[in-house]
Design goal:
CATH architecture: Alpha-Beta Barrel
Order of helices and strands: EHHEHEHEHEHEHHEEHH
Number of domains: 1
Distance between the termini: 22 Å
CATH superfamily: Aldolase class I
Shape: globular
Radius of gyration: 17 Å
Bound molecules: pyridoxine-5'-phosphate
Structural class: alpha/beta
Strand order of the largest sheet: 1-2-3-4-5-6-7-8
Strand content: 15-25%
CATH topology: TIM Barrel
Oligomer: single chain
Length: about 250
Amino acid sequence: MKLGVNIDHIATVRQARQTCEPDPVRAAVLAELGGADSITVHLREDRRHIQDRDVRLLRETLQIPLNLEMAVTAEMIAIACELRPQQACLVPERRQELTTEGGLKVDGDNALLGQAIAQLSAHGTQVSLFIDPDETAIRHAHALGAGTVELHTGSWANAWLQALRDPGSAQRHACNQERLRLEQAAAICAQLGLRLHIGHGITYRNVRELLHLNGLQELNIGHSIIAHAVMVGLQQAVQDMKALLHAGPCSPI
Ligand code: PXP
């Protein structure tokens, strides 16, 4: 089970002052020393956090795979084809959003998406599609030639937090339903032979509740690790998350 560490927030702090620190490239080294299996950065159209320079330097210096999170635009595809990151995760992007809000709309009429997958794959990049845990989306992702999907765990994570804050049966039920959706989606991925990644809203407190998912290979986690790193340092924060992955699944709240 692999841990991808998303370091966008390091760049967010730097950009708050338009300065040169903290440097995500240095952060990536610490994450790597803490046991990260890959580093994820989202180069956004508006460059609000990660900059082109960061992606270039990470690609040159990382000893572990770089996972480039990106929108399906001509600009991003050209950058990815030039830099050839080991992994790319295709996501929807809206300028106004605080973070990626939902999965890609994969509905069968996705010629551009299919072309992007083919182009990136031809450059040696393993492509994943960030999608909701929905059977139709998974089947379309497979048909489009994606070898990997990253299931959006945000709805489950929100329901989990509600169940924790207000442990009434309705909240528990909603959380169980979201977990069931993820379990069913994971089973379909396994049937189709898709590699399974998950990401969004995963924290130190909830991560072990998803480790039982059938065929799960990689978790991509950002906010919770960086939040913990503010207190204990990034290398320690990554080590602490890796320890939970090693501890294995636990029963739901
Ligand atoms: N995976 C994808 C595709 C994302 O967009 C994000 C958020 O940048 C993450 C994983 C990490 O989510 P979080 O910061 O909530 O851990």
